[in-house]
Amino acid sequence: MNGFRERMARFMYGRYGNDQLSRLYLGLALVCLVLNLLTRLELFYVAGLLFMGYGIYRSFSKNIAKMSAQNQKYLNWRYQRIVKYNNEKKHWAQRKEYRFYKCPGCKQKVRVPRGRGKIAITCPKCRNEFIKKS
After folding, report:
1. By the 8 A CB rule, do 17 and 59 touch?
2. Cα–Cα distance, 62 to 50 (Å, whole number)
3. CA-to-CA distance for 20 and 76, rounded, in angstroms?
4. Which residues are CB-contacts of 65 (< 8 A; sequence separation ≥ 6)?
5. Rounded distance, CA 118 to CA 108, Å?
6. First and final CA of the chain: distance in angstroms?
7. pLDDT tens per residue across all 134 residues of the chain
8. Distance of alpha carbon 32 from alpha carbon 41, whole angstroms
């Protein structure tokens, strides 16, 4: 077993390897192939093979800079979605105590307490003052 591990390490030397985006493609391939088993649609089979082929291609690629840039772009996209989801979850939890407005000047979100009547809101970012009902 040790000889196999050594040969595999030599083979993978200078290749990109497995990353989050490759794992995503392989996961999508698995989902498509399972859907193919359930529905018998050729579309899922072809899509599964394409996802699997590209995921394996990424893992064995020697163009490390390009694959790393693609993975970084995917990670940035995923991080933005997670932050947006967490902010929406936080706003949903605070919806009974606070109202959220966008500043007409800079579009910054401003949180004000509910039940204060008409109030003058000063944007903390651009110092623009606007009047809204809380």
Report:
1. yes
2. 20
3. 12
4. none
5. 20
6. 69
7. 678 989 988 888 999 989 999 999 999 999 999 999 999 999 999 999 999 999 999 999 999 999 999 999 999 999 999 999 999 999 999 999 999 999 998 999 999 999 999 999 999 999 999 999 98
8. 10
Tokens read off for 62: 């020697």
Q: Residue 109 corresponds to which amino acid?
A: K
pLDDT of residue 9: 85
Two structure tokens written together for 111: 């949180």
Could you give the C-alpha distances from 39 to 29, 31, 42, 44, 52, in angstroms and in order?
Answer: 15, 12, 9, 9, 19
Which residue is listed with tokens 């993978």? 12
What is the pLDDT, as a whole number, of residue 43?
A: 96
Question: Cβ atoms within 10 A of the Cβ of 104, count?
Answer: 10
Q: Residue 8's pLDDT is what?
A: 86
Q: Which two tokens stand for residue 100?
A: 């959220």
Q: How far apart are CA 52 and CA 77, in angstroms?
A: 22
Cα–Cα distance measured from residue 46 to residue 7, given in angstroms and rounded to the nearest whole number: 32
| 57 CA to centre of own chain | 22
